[in-house]
Amino acid sequence: MSNDMPMLDASTMVLVLALGNLTLCALLTFFNHGPVRAPAMTFWSLSKQIQGGAWLLLALGDSGVVPAPISIPGGYALLFAGVAIESGASWEAARRPAWRTPTLILGGVAVLVFFLCYLIDEEGLRSVAASLLLGAFYLSGSVALGWRWRDASLLQRFLSLATGALALVVAARGLSVLLLPRGWGWLSNDLLSQFSSGALYLLLLGNAFGVLLLTRERLQDTLERLETIDPLTDAPNRRGFFQLLAPWLALARRPGLPTGLIVFDLDGFKRINDSYGHPAGDVVLHQMVALCRRQLRDSDQLGRVVGVEFAVLLPRTSLDEAVMVAERIRAAIDTTPVKSERAMIKLTASFGVTTIRPEDSTTSLFQRADEAMQRAKQAGRNRVTPASEAVADI
């Protein structure tokens, strides 16, 4: 039995890459991107269409259907453009759009470099340029995938490492021809060419499944975030705030520093919506939350409980200190009009302040704070009222 390892010829591998990319394009046509397709996904889908056309043109050239002087320059030009766009899509997904334009410009430069190499040396130099340029663009995509390594998911880290490793294999073919024309021991240039073609196929599969899985993973993260975060103000919603509050309710049963709670409501907010419209009301809420956060410590938590009623959790804060924080927020809201498209809108808010008691539940705690807030409204609004039944400071 022969020990020779069967190897696919270059024409077959090019055909496989063409069919793989075209099949992926067909699947993307029926992929549910949601009501709005992200720019990164739009660029990535376009890149796959261009790469599919590139490999198909190269396959037709290998089979003699299209003349080589047309198929090779045209196919590689499309291929470099497609891979450059794919790399740009990775930078777009990494929230670094400033890198997208230079990447696309480099794609145009790569096409010119390849044409120059093709004119100088139709076979050798062209092969070197193709391997090095493709490897460089895939390596750029790998860096984009791993740009925020600490915040990246395990799937994103794996894709970054795998793409980088395969990109180096693709580039190694060109480096080998330049530095080791006869190969290195058992690693001949023909075998390295097979490895490079296999790496391109794995990049096709890995990037295809990887990007689609990352899209679904990020969508799932967004849905989970919306369960606890108010999308308008980017503050915890009622459910999210209660989750943050739960451990402090438990700690209140132990001796130690108290935890303060502020509940406040914007005065006459319906007038803003009626006079200036709901978009102006949204601007007011967003800017008001940003203003309040500037008055708080990093450990304090501001949440939108319901409508225009907000709550602030103040860990290790006595009642008197919580009242001072509430007064600081009240003064900031009162003295800082919010600029909308139609007018400068003046706001006021009424505050109720309490601390967590050992026997408190969420219901009793908020009931006490809400009652204090209602007394502030009844007393004329735009004021801070501590809960009368709050326990003395520890």
From TrEMBL:
Q: Which reactions appear under catalytic activity for this entry?
A: 2 GTP = 3',3'-c-di-GMP + 2 diphosphate
Say yes or no: keyword Ribosomal protein present.
no
Check the record and name the InterPro entries matching this protein.
Diguanylate_Cyclase, GGDEF_dom, Nucleotide_cyclase, Rev_trsase/Diguanyl_cyclase
What's the EC number here? 2.7.7.65
Q: Which UniProt keywords apply?
A: Membrane, Transmembrane, Transmembrane helix
Residue ranges of every copy of the GGDEF domain listed in the record: 257-389
Q: Tell me what this protein is called.
A: diguanylate cyclase
> Organism, per UniProt?
Massilia aurea
